[in-house]
Amino acid sequence: MPSTVLVSTRFFDPSAEALLRENGLTVRRTGLPDDVQDDALDQAQLDRLLEGVEGWIVGTAPVRGELIRAHPQLKVIARRGVGYNNVDIEAARELGVCVAIAPGGNDASVADHALGMMLGVAKRLKESHRALEGGRWSPVVGMELFEKTVGLVGFGRIAQAVAKRLRGFDARVLAYDPFPNRAAAEGLGVELVELPALLRQSDYVSLHLPLTRETRRIIDRDALAAMKPGSILINTSRGGLVDEEALKQALMEGRLYGAGLDVFEGEGDDDSLPAIRELIGLPNVMASAHAAGSSNEGLSRTNRIAAQTVIDVLRGVEPPAQCVVVKGAR
């Protein structure tokens, strides 16, 4: 009898589903429309959907320890993305369930988005659009990215992709990373510096760090005060990296030129919506709904990575090391 794979993540394209089926797997879907995240499913619904399932390609649904324990046949949980904070990693490790991510698939999409936000905020496109909607044809004067200094906080794959794109703008690129890739920095002409120097010198600061205890609110009130006056903050990484109330004050007081935000600390929490609305309502803020990695191409690549990881585990093949968060033993 073929193994069953539950696909609960949104935007799982037909070619990725076909890859699963071509490898002899039965695919089970949730029936949710693509505009609804799988975290809309309650634990009882997930419990029913997971009956007899050996592989699970999950989106943002909470994967709790009790849910994993209730399904001893489950062998692999694959996140379509690189974050896995919604998965109880310790329970998966204890129970021998492989947890996997899909690194690299949406790097280009996120890098494009970060650069697009730099340009959109700098050229004040939101304000220009609103002015034109109101019948005002006077130009809104912005600033350039050309020959500016861009600081990348974090220097992994996505930040390196941003650095490559910035070559076309003749930008000076600085990077801070607690574990710097010196060879990559040298190859891209990037200057590795400490965070205070980066904040002090950069016209644009773009965040590319994972969210950990050490990085939570790394851009706090003091960091914002240390940033170059009139600079721009871009966050396409994790909302918890920024003290959003302090950011709002810096923007309202004119200490920063603007901000481009794809992620928010309270995203998905209804109680946080009023504060988020206040922040994104500012004229010098451009925002998107955690959509940086959501290009057709990026989603297709990450879908295939997640699907192939599930196929490998269910065949007894070792998945690529960069995809494995918990090795698993089932």
From TrEMBL:
InterPro entries registered for this protein in UniProt: D-2-hydroxyacid_DH (IPR050857), D-isomer_2_OHA_DH_cat_dom (IPR006139), D-isomer_DH_CS (IPR029753), D-isomer_DH_NAD-bd (IPR006140), NAD(P)-bd_dom_sf (IPR036291)
Pfam families: 2-Hacid_dh, 2-Hacid_dh_C
Domain D-isomer specific 2-hydroxyacid dehydrogenase NAD-binding: 115-292
One function term, GO molecular function aspect: oxidoreductase activity, acting on the CH-OH group of donors, NAD or NADP as acceptor
PROSITE patterns (UniProt xref): D_2_HYDROXYACID_DH_3
All copies of domain D-isomer specific 2-hydroxyacid dehydrogenase catalytic, residue ranges: 31-324
Keywords from the named record: NAD, Oxidoreductase
UniProt KW Magnesium keyword: no
Residue intervals passing through the bilayer: none
UniProt-listed SUPFAM superfamilies: Formate/glycerate dehydrogenase catalytic domain-like (SSF52283), NAD(P)-binding Rossmann-fold domains (SSF51735)
Oxidoreductase recorded as keyword: yes
Domain of life per record: Bacteria
Family the UniProt entry places it in: Belongs to the D-isomer specific 2-hydroxyacid dehydrogenase family.
Protein's UniProt name: Hydroxyacid dehydrogenase
